Amino acid sequence: MAKTVAKVVYKPDTQSTDSYIVIVNPEEYKKWKDGGHTIPLVDVVDSFEIFHSTQGAQGHLNRTSKQELDAIFGSTKEDDCVTHVLQKGTLQITSAGDKYTTSNDAQQGHNQVSRGAAGHGGR
């Protein structure tokens, strides 16, 4: 069974490709969104980290800088910015890969630290 990742995606402008993303617990988020604002945000979000992607919700995720947070959300406080994303964003549940893979299968499991001429040392 594939693992799933639940995230709330907020786009400040419908024409923009910029997306701001918060990873959430889907059950707690639905309760919170339906008026359960007494639920602590710690139970709703995975972390108070807002990710930014210029390629939509499926693109490469980068951490959002304080300057970006201030420009988009009018605050650098993570609580305020996360709450804004949760209130105005949409929930998306995507499947994640089942296991870790390498980009060079020939070297999988054979990564070694280099050694000096005498057989010891290296990095």
From TrEMBL:
Q: Where is this region: Disordered?
A: 99-123
- Looking at the record, the residues that make up the Ribosome maturation protein SDO1/SBDS N-terminal domain are 5-95
- InterPro entries listed in its UniProt record: Ribosome_mat_SBDS_N_sf (IPR036786), SDO1/SBDS_N (IPR019783)
Q: Where is the signal peptide?
A: none
- Stretches assigned to coiled coil: none
Regions of biased composition (Polar residues) lie at 99-114
- Put simply, this protein is called Ribosome maturation protein SDO1/SBDS N-terminal domain-containing protein
The protein's organism comes out as Tilletia horrida
